[in-house]
Amino acid sequence: MIKLARNWVTKMSITIGRMSIQLKLILSFICIILIPIILVSWYLFNDVYLKTIKDLEKKNQYILDIEKTNVANNTAVMERTAQLAVSNNGVKEYLETLEELDTAALIDFKTKTFASFQYFLFNNPNIANIRLYTSNPYVHEFWPIIFNEERIVDKPWYPTVIKQNGVVWWDISESSSDIIQNSTSTDNATGLYVSLLREFKFPDDRHLGVLEVTMEVSNFFQKTFSSVQDSESQMLVIDRSGKAFTNEAAPVFDKLSVEEVMRQFQLHEHETGDSYSFRYNGTPYLIIPSYIDQLDVHLLNVVSLASTLSDVSQTRNTIIIAMIILIALLSFISYFLHSLILKKLQILRESMKKVRKGDFNVDIAITSMDEVGELAFHFRQMLKKINELIVEAVNRQAATKEAELKSLKNQIDAHFLYNTLENLKMLAEIEGQYTISDALTSLGGMMRYNLQWTSNHVRLKDELAHIHNYIAIMNIRYDHSLTLVSEVPPGYMEQEMLKMSLQPLVENAVKHGMRSQHKAAEKLVITIKAYEMNDNIVIEVHDNGDGIEESKLREVNLMIRLEDAEYQLMRSQTARSEREGSGIGLRNVDQRIVMYYGKSHGIRVESVQGSYTKVTMTLPYLILAGGGSNHAQPAHR
Fold first, then answer.
1. The pTM is what?
2. 15, 52, 124, 216: which has the fewest C-beta neighbours closer than 10 Å?
3. What EC number(s) is this enzyme filed under (predicted)?
4. How many CB atoms lie within 10 A of CB 349?
5. Cα separations in angstroms, 476 against 470, 480, 503, 511
């Protein structure tokens, strides 16, 4: 996976790298605008969607609360009716009679007590039926209220009502088909009734019968079974046994089955949220549940979100289309403006192509003061510099050819001198003049080292050999008053250094050391040391001469690193007699080292008057390898 991602990133980088700057600018412009707009739009639409759902939930929760209020009112009406039915004294006396009544007593009960009782109970048109089922064998049935209890003993709710011991039991079911319906009740399309069931007893707490007060479900749950419904929502009633009661002809159930609602209800029944949502056949729905404890039923409001989401989606699509049109328009305008801005850059690019083909006399007609104009100015300056370098290179090449001819002539002269010195050396040895022979050998070595200049870099051991020849010759001049001590470890003998950079230091030591008057009788000892320090090689040339005065020492160290103009000014202000000891040789060596190795390297003079003088040379630690003088590599320690 990571490898695929890297390959994709690499391909995208290559593709973007091949695009023109103009196209890259437009793409970046689109990304800078498009990405924030997408993020903001997503956030806003999500917020709008959530607010819409919340408002819809509040609206349908309000409808649900209205239905619950209606249910509470109907429950109160049925309970009040039931209480009136069992508390009427005349009816109670009739139901509790313990002897057979004659015909006159029955007629009197019906015309007086029962007629007024019936009128009073059925005063509320929403009450479908009021029935008193009695087990008293002395009680005769009076339609439509008083019936024999044997008519209901086979009802599924009958045992439960008896167990309730006088406590009200609510049930939703079909009415008994074997009992004649109240002629005053309206036709019930559903055939379903909400029943209030309650046991009533003799004064001695013996079972007497069961009271049933019924109301059609369409009247009890008015909004649930109303024919005037919101096409996007519908309420359901789920009783304690899990049966659902609703208006299945509602528009919501054109695309949603009652069974699916029941399944979703069972999945979320124990959740504590105010609502839950689900999808069915691609359509989103919202269910708002509520539990009615008194009836032990669940009242659900099922809301279709299709229309709501359609409105949000339509708004979103409209904004997206407007955004695409706006981005396309801005991209076109940007393309036009970028064409004007990058036109100068294209001119500069074409000029560069001509230069690449070898035309260095290109005239760039761009004089603006912006970044492209500045780039064109520097490009013109670069072409000018290139032309100057070409002229300089041609002149240098001509000078090199001339130098090669002179070098060839010098080599011829050098061979003649070497042969002459060799003949003189042999003649001195034949004559027994061995001192002269040794001096000629040293002189020949110095001449060969000076004249055979094939590289600017040599080994430290080559430079030391040259110094030994120099000291040998100077000992003839100073009557063997010089002693050279080399304390260079063998591991540093291959150290790279500039050719003829050590001789000026030794020559300076000889020149100023032998000039000392109070040490004329002593030998001048010159010691050369080498050691490593901070990834550098340090070479010290130490002599035991009289040293340098402190003021003179500061002047010498200052003049070694001065710029040329300052050095010439300072030198011109120095007396002619003092210029000879102004350190020009040391300055030349330091400048060469700085030029090749950088300002962190060079030489430094230390001295204590009357004791010693020490010149320290700092070089990068580079070991010449491969047997040649042109291959150096850093030392690894």
1. 0.51
2. 15
3. 2.7.13.3
4. 11
5. 10, 6, 18, 14
